[in-house]
From TrEMBL:
GO biological process terms held by the UniProt record: methylation
Gene from which this protein is expressed: desVI
Disordered: region residues: 1-30
Top-level taxonomic group: Bacteria
Keywords from the UniProt entry: Methyltransferase, Transferase
EC number: 2.1.1.234
InterPro entries linked to this entry: Methyltransf_25, SAM-dependent_MTases_sf
Protein name stated in the entry: dTDP-3-amino-3,4, 6-trideoxy-alpha-D-glucopyranose
Organism expressing this protein natively: Alienimonas californiensis
Domain Methyltransferase residue range list: 80-171
MF annotations from Gene Ontology: methyltransferase activity
C-alpha cells in the first residue's frame, strides 16, 4: 500500500490512500463535536471519502473505450460529475471532458481542479435528468450509484434519454450501480478510512431503512473527520431508489435507446465480464446508443 504524502488540505490529491483502521489501545479522548450536514456541500471531504479508488475506475474506462469503441473515444461527458475525480484524469490523458452536477460547490471544486491541471473549466451546474449538450460526445460515464439519486421511474427514463441524445450514434455509456439482490437478507454496510496529508476521515455507511414496495433505501452516513485543528463527526442521510436486475431490464426496455454490450462487477476486470443473476449487487453496464 502506498504511503500517504503531505498535501494541502485545500487541494485534490492524486495520491489518496485507504488505510486500515488502527486498533484501539484504550486511550481516552474527548468526545468529538457532532454536526448535521450535507457531505456534498463539503467537496474536499467528499472527494477524499469517495475518490480514493479512482485508479481502478479510470483504467477500466480506458479499457472499455478501447475494447468497445476502439480509436473513436475522444470526447466524454459525466452526468453528476461531483468533484471531477475521473474527469481530470481523462483530461490529462488527452480526452476532452465535461460534466454537470446539481451541487454548485462540487462544480466549483471540479473546475478549480481542472484549471489547476491546465484543463478547460468544463463542469456546469445542471440536472443529470434534464440536460442537453451543444455537441454530441463519444462516451458518457456515471460509475457509482449517482444514478440511484433519481427518485422516480420518470426521472430515470429522462436521464437515459438525455444521455442517449448526448451521444454520437454508437456512443458508449458506462453506468455503474448497486443492484438489490432478490432475496430477503438485504443489508448494506461499509466502513473505511481514507487519508490525505493531515486530513483523515473514517467513514461509516449503513442501511437504516429499506422499503421494497416503495423501492427506496435510506443510508445513514457518519464521517469521523480529523484535521490539524479540529476533530468532529459529520452525520448525513442519503436516499437511493432501488433496482433489481429485472427492474433495470424493464427500465432499459421502456426507453429502448441502448444496447447492452456487456456487464462487469466492481472489480473492473475487463477480461472478466459477469452474468447478472438474482444475487448480483455491484454492476457496471456497458451500453451502446442505438
Amino acid at each position: 500500500m502506498p504511503a500517504a504524502h503531505d498535501a494541502s488540505q485545500d487541494q485534490a490529491s492524486d495520491d489518496d490512500v485507504l488505510v486500515p483502521i488502527p486498533p484501539d489501545h484504550g486511550e481516552v479522548e474527548p468526545a468529538p463535536e457532532e454536526v448535521r450536514a450535507n457531505l456534498y456541500d463539503f467537496p474536499k471531504y467528499y472527494d477524499l471519502v469517495f475518490g480514493s479508488d479512482w485508479k481502478a475506475e479510470y483504467d477500466f474506462l480506458l479499457e472499455c473505450f478501447d475494447k468497445y469503441r476502439p480509436g473513436k473515444v475522444k470526447t466524454t461527458f459525466e452526468p453528476a460529475c461531483g468533484t471531477g475525480r475521473l474527469m481530470v484524469k481523462l483530461g490529462k490523458a488527452g480526452l476532452a471532458v465535461a460534466g454537470n452536477d446539481l451541487n454548485e460547490k462540487a462544480v466549483a471544486f471540479c473546475n478549480e481542479r481542472l484549471k489547476r491541471h491546465g484543463l478547460p473549466e468544463t463542469a456546469v451546474v445542471g440536472d443529470m435528468a434534464d440536460f442537453k449538450l451543444q455537441k454530441p460526445v463519444d462516451a458518457c460515464f456515471n460509475m457509482i450509484n449517482s444514478f440511484r439519486h433519481l427518485g422516480s421511474e420518470a426521472e430515470a427514463q429522462s436521464h437515459l434519454n438525455c444521455v442517449a441524445d448526448a451521444l454520437k450514434p454508437g456512443g458508449l455509456y458506462l453506468l455503474g450501480l448497486h443492484l438489490t439482490p432478490e432475496d430477503d437478507d438485504w443489508e448494506g454496510e461499509e466502513t473505511w478510512h481514507a487519508r490525505r496529508g493531515q486530513l483523515s476521515i473514517i467513514s461509516d455507511l449503513r442501511t437504516t431503512d429499506f422499503d421494497r414496495s416503495k423501492r427506496m433505501e435510506t443510508l445513514g452516513m457518519t464521517f469521523n473527520i480529523t484535521t490539524p485543528t479540529r476533530h468532529f463527526v459529520m452525520r448525513d442521510t442519503m436516499h437511493y431508489r432501488t433496482y433489481t436486475r429485472k427492474e433495470m431490464a424493464e427500465l432499459f426496455s421502456s426507453v429502448d435507446r441502448f444496447e447492452i454490450l456487456e456487464t462487469y462487477d466492481f472489480c473492473y476486470d475487463i477480461e472478466e465480464p459477469i452474468i447478472i443473476d438474482e444475487l448480483t449487487e455491484d454492476v457496471v453496464y456497458v451500453l451502446r446508443a442505438k
